[in-house]
Amino acid sequence: MISSLRGLVLSTGVDHVVIEVGGVGFFVFVPGDIAHTARIGEQLRLHTSLIVREDALTLFGFTEPLELEVFGHLLSVTGVGPKSALGVLGHLTVDQIATAVADDDDAPFRRVSGIGPKTAKLIVVQLAGKLQPPSAAAGGRSASGETDVVTQLSAALMGLGWSERVALEAAAETAAAASDADRRSVSALLRQALAALGPAKAGASRG
Q: What's the number of domains the chain is made of?
């Protein structure tokens, strides 16, 4: 079982990266945001799941262990295969998935390409009680004020063409790292988020 890989990025595609480890190139399917932001020649570490089929051995990789765990839960749902599970994690964050399941809301899953209404409902039903909903507050900060800032900042990033997943993650990370003064200014946070994301990545993350 290949549980993780760390090596140089040899190439990237829309839904995969090729990582060289010990002179061997591993083709790994990844969520779109990883494929878009991975840079050739740089180190990348992925937590992986090896799917064994009669005609193929396929690797799926994620930067966070929790994403890999949720990937496994998704695979346990009737009608959800590896590509569909990857699609869910490429469209929604782990917190969004957990929240949707906790709220018995299948709408977010129906918006994922390849997930029909029946499968979306099965995801909510069969994952009930298996995922931990996100905490109302993190690190002792007030959730309400910070959530408003993250919402406004992610909306601004999506308006500039970034995907929902990338925008939400970048907004949350920027708000968490910002000073109290900067958190009162969405424009200041937006400049920081764009600086962190980098102009070269914007085009690849659009659409």
A: 3
Cα gap 44→57, rounded to integer Å: 21
Q: Which domain holds residue 115?
A: 65-126
Listed as own residue / partner, the contacts of 125-130 with beta carbons closer than 8 Å and 24 or more positions apart are 126/76, 126/77, 126/78, 127/73, 127/74, 127/77, 127/97, 127/101, 128/101, 128/104, 130/73, 130/101
pLDDT tens by residue, 112-155: 988 999 999 999 999 988 887 665 334 434 444 455 677 778 88
Q: What letter would DSSP give residue 63?
A: S
pLDDT digits 0-9 by tens, 63-85 = 999 999 999 999 999 999 999 99
Q: Decide: 12 and 38 in contact? Cβ < 8 Å.
A: yes
**Contact present, 153 and 175 (Cβ < 8 Å):** yes
Is position 188 within any domain? yes
> Which pTM value belongs to this model?
0.64
The CATH number covering residue 42 comes to 2.40.50.140
